[in-house]
Amino acid sequence: MARLLQDPPKFHPSEWDIANKMQCACTESQKSRSERMIAESRRLQDEIEKTTQKTQSDVNKKIEQRRDEIKFWKQELDNKLEQIVHETEVLLTFKTRLEKALESCKEPLDIAQKCLLNRQRRAGIDLVHDEVEQELVKEAEVLRGVIALLERTLEQTNEQIRLNRSAKYNLEMDLKDKFTALMIDDYCASLTNNTPDIRYADNALKIEGNFVSPEDWTDFSNMNIEKAEKQRNNSLALRALIDGILSQTASDMRKQCETVNDAFRNRVKEVKDAKNKLETLLAMVMDETASQEKNIAALKKAIVDKEGPVKVAQTRLEARNRRPNVELCYDTVQYRLTSEVQEITKNIQRQLKDTLAQAETELKALSRRQLSLEEEIQVKENTLYIDEVLCMQMRESVSINNF
């Protein structure tokens, strides 16, 4: 207890002096280390600041470069989209031309078939497989061939329009993504260290989604452009083909239509010539019939006229046969009267009546010939009505246009 209350030990003045010196030395050393740390910190801050600024500047440059790349490909896609849209619109007009051309083929085909059907109503010898019928059959075949070709071309055009629209859709989707990406990079480019809405993002370094390489990114847009260009070239080639088909088919139909019309005109002329000849023959037959009827009347009158002489001669013979006794002589008078009766009877029987029978036979033949000619003229009139009135007037409405 007494030891605890004793005074603490006393230090020697030299020890006190050494202790002070050590405090000074330690303090100076600590100050030097602190100064070095401050200097190192400042250097490190300056270095990191410069590095950060450089990196940020490089990132800004890269963002700007990326924006330029996106703008370039966006412009390329825009140009190609404009081209494919324009080409599709033009192709749609060609589709309309094809549809109109196809529709215009129906009436000529219907008329050709009606003409063939009407001409089946020709009668007698006029129901002939003539040049008109041959050309009408050919015209129907040409029109069916044209319709089939136009239908196939229309199907091909519809498919090309679908492919054009598919390429347009791909371009639009790519452009939509480019537009979104450009807006995002524009936003990124606008950010600075003092922008109010910048914040920490814990998952910023986490990769989400399927990232593609820059090469794949470029190839994707380039592939869309190449596909669109391919379809555009195919569309251009198809338009040239359609132009050629429309021109050629119109020319073929027009040529065949004119050939049929020429055949109709020639046939109508032939039938009219034949009808005129028949009418001339009919007039001759009718004149001859009139002459023959007069001849028959004259023959009948001649026969009637011979009745008087026969009666006179027979009456004389009958009277002279009553002569008495020796007066009943076969004299020259008797001989001549007998020969007169025989002569007149022979002339009437063998000449006049036979000639009358022949004349009546000829008259019947002329009547049959007249009837035959009249029937044939009616056949020709029926043919002319069918060809000239029904068919040719119906064909006047046929119009082959270039679409």
TrEMBL record:
InterPro entries: Tektin-like (IPR048256), Tektins (IPR000435). It comes from the Eukaryota. GO terms for biological process: cilium assembly; cilium movement involved in cell motility. GO terms for cellular component: axoneme; microtubule cytoskeleton; nucleus. The keyword Cytoplasm applies. Its main location: cytoplasm. The keyword Cytoplasm applies. It is found in: Cytoplasm, Cytoskeleton, Cilium axoneme; Cytoplasm, Cytoskeleton, Flagellum axoneme. Keywords: Cell projection, Cilium, Coiled coil, Cytoplasm, Cytoskeleton, Flagellum. Residues 34-83, 261-288, 349-383 form a coiled coil. It holds the Pfam family Tektin. Microtubule inner protein component of sperm flagellar doublet microtubules. Belongs to the tektin family. PANTHER family: TEKTIN (PTHR19960), TEKTIN-1 (PTHR19960:SF25). Microtubule inner protein (MIP) part of the dynein-decorated doublet microtubules (DMTs) in cilia and flagellar axoneme. Forms filamentous polymers in the walls of ciliary and flagellar microtubules. This is Tektin. The gene is Tekt1.
